[in-house]
Amino acid sequence: MQAILCGRTLFGIVPIECRSQINDSGLECEQLMKHSFFGMSLFVLLALLISACGSEAESQNISVEKEFEEYRKNVLEPLDERSFEFAEMFNHSASIIEQPQEAHRYMEEEVVPFMEETRKIATDAHDGLVNEEIRKLNENTIEYLDLTLDSLQKSAELSAIDVDTMDVDTVTEETYQKAVKLNEENIELQEKIERTGVEMDRQIDELLSKQ
Predict the structure, then answer these.
(1) For residues 137 and 121, what is the distance between their CA atoms, to the nearest angstrom?
(2) pLDDT at residue 172 tops 70
(3) Phi and psi at residue 13, in whole multiples of 5°?
(4) CA distance 69 to 75
(5) Over the range 4-35, which residues count as b (16 or more CB within 10 Å of their CB) and which as e?
(6) pLDDT 10s digits, 84-104
């Protein structure tokens, strides 16, 4: 599977030829986000996206190589496919930054549920995995998706602040501090996402070397 050998997205592996498209979209996002709290959060998450490079076993004696092939087909490849859908959704979110109500609705009703469904691919596969190497990789995949989902939910909270403050000239100190705290928490999540992704890459490279 070519995609496994290329750069990593927020929740999977994306072929390297797609990076230029994402980079171009990133430039558009930067132009659109202006000063909204939600926009700042989206930009941080998209920056990470740009910089980031299971079925049940047939038997309890399945080899690591065979199980990894099945894992690629049933977990990693579906995540790859959804990563492209996510990139499109993400770019749409950025394009409607200046419409706070619609941006918030889209994040809560479209983006977050999509990531919840994506996470289910990995969680549903876990109990059927046999070899420790594959189970550890899937545990990191689930953690990666959990962290990404947490980050999106915080972005949704930030978009809610944008909605609440869209008709006021100056936000209250309480609202400002809440937004700052959410932003800081989101940055911490980005760092955890990056570390988890690096470990996933290492595990995948190690498993690929055994093929």
Answers:
(1) 14
(2) yes
(3) -115, 130
(4) 10
(5) bebbbbbbbbbbeebbeebeebbeebeebbee
(6) 999 999 899 999 999 999 999
